[in-house]
Amino acid sequence: MGIDINKYEPVGDKKNSDFFNTYRLKIYERRASSGLDQLLGKIRGLVVHVETGDALGYLEELYLMTPYRLVASYMSDTHKIYILQSEPRFPRFFLLEPLSPTYEDEIKRFNMMYPLARAKSNARYVGEIMHTTDVEETRGILESHNIRFHYPDEVDNSFYANDHFTFSCPSDFTYNRIGYTSFDMDDFDSLRLGQRFHLTSEQLASLEAQDALGRDRGLHELLSGVDHMATRILAGEREDAILEFLTMSNYYFWGAYNIADMNSSTNVNRNDNVEDDKESPAKVFTANNTPSFVNSFEDLPMPTEDFVRNYGRRMHHVAYEVVDGDHPSGQKNVDYVVGELARLGVPFLAHVVGECQDDPDLKQIFSKHSKYSLLITEYVERCHDFEGFFTKQNVASLTEAAGSDERYEHGHVFD
Fold first, then answer.
1. Are 175 and 313 in contact (CB under 8 A)?
2. Is the pTM of the predicted complex or chain greater than 0.90?
3. Does residue 87 contact residue 67 with C-beta atoms inside 8 Å?
4. Where do the H-state alpha helices sit in 145-237?
5. What number of other Cβ atoms are within 10 A of residue 195's Cβ?
């Protein structure tokens, strides 16, 4: 993209505080003067953690619903680690599965605090891995900016702190981490994640069967890379979460819009060093406009805040781009993909939203939460070279659909 982030004026109608506007620019300036911007590149990996015994089921889900395919598997002292790849220029996907069902670290302790996360207490999107030319220098700079990191003698899972990866401690605002590596993501053995192992012939056959389902229906050729990842946070922590992410990355704040119908805002951060967001996906933060205790006076919709109260601060969905075009069946590609997946038993929330006629536009839809990762999968088709990032109407419809599916019944109260 190559914009001057110091002169860039964020788009949108969500008003930010003077505090936010002041420190956003200070953070950009400090990243440049400290050398951090010169060190950091693109997001090279997305990391998800699941329950013991759930990895194969989640792999089957990914094989059917996404372009990711297994390329290597390793076993550490505590975890099986599965690495998946789509196009080489897009981030890898790291799936972590504890060897023991009694395994416990911060993920389980976070999840046990929230009623709808307890059933899958080891399931969580962990965070991203960013490329850096020097891991130790990156960590040193960020520690001088008060970012905390895991160290080998302090972690239960060696994946978070070893000779090749260094991960930040979970954010107080998002519970997400960011990892950094200077190693080649195509030379998996060089990452020294543990002892390499292979799936059984039966397990491989189950993955191939899922792959064949999508391939036979022409789905996989229509699914591209990750467009964005969206984290839901509390109303009062929106600005802090964004500024913290800007401190730890080379992204810039693209802009924010109020979604009045859902009493929330959508806040987008992008990497200006790539021409295609899928090479380093956008990071989105969604928050209520009013905290729940104040909203009790107003009685406005608040599906975003309810999600955080029920599941905790966490990644809500990962969005995949569908190749733009008209399918031979007479539908837009996204409508065809969703229709075929639904016929194969994939549950979706509501229907595809957005119109793609003759003008640039978006069509989008949410799946239901994965029973393995608790993540929603979004599909988005950007029609006719749509240049914006989203439309308010679409976001409102998607948020409403997800909120209806994320309620928690306790006593006679429905969130």
1. yes
2. yes
3. yes
4. 201-216
5. 9
Tell me how far apart the terminal alpha carbons of the chain are, to the nearest angstrom: 41
How many angstroms separate the CA atoms of 312 and 117, rounded?
A: 8
Residue with tokens 């990391």: 47
Provide the phi-psi class of 411: left if phi over 0, else alpha when psi is between -120 and 50, else beta: left
Give the integer Cα–Cα distance in Å for 289 and 406.
Answer: 19
Residue with tokens 């030319």: 133
Burial 249-283 (b: 16+ CB within 10 A, else e): bbbbbbbbbbbeebbbbbbbbbbbbbeebbbbbbb
Q: How far apart are CA 90 and CA 118, in angstroms?
A: 32
Answer whether 308's CB lies under 8 Å from 233's CB.
Answer: yes
Question: What single-letter amino acid sits at 32?
Answer: A
Q: What is the pLDDT of residues 377-396, one digit of tens each?
A: 999 998 766 666 655 565 55
Q: Cα–Cα distances in Å, from 187 out to 157, 196, 321? A: 21, 13, 27
CA angle, 228 then 249 then 393, to 5°: 30
Q: Which residues contact 205 (CB under 8 A, 6 or more apart)?
A: none
Number of other CB atoms surrounding residue 34 within 10 Å: 17
How far, in Å, are 65, 78, 377 from residue 99 at the CA level?
26, 6, 26
C-alpha–C-alpha distance, residues 169 and 191, integer Å: 20
CB within 8 A of 295, min separation 6: which ones? 263, 288, 302, 305
248: Cα within 13 Å, side-chain hemisphere: 29
**408: which 2 tokens?**
């928690």
Instruction: Label the pairing between strands 223-233 and 282-288.
Output: parallel
Estimate the crossing angle of helix 18-34 against helix 238-248, to 10 degrees.
10
pLDDT digits (tens, 9 = 90+) for 66-93: 999 999 999 999 999 999 999 999 999 9
CB contact set of 111 (below 8 Å; sequence gap of 6+): 117, 118, 120, 121, 122, 123, 124, 312
Q: Find the mean pLDDT for residues 244-258.
A: 97
Instruction: Indicate if the pLDDT at residue 138 is higher than 90.
Output: yes
pLDDT value for 163: 85
Judged by DSSP in three states, 262 sits in: helix
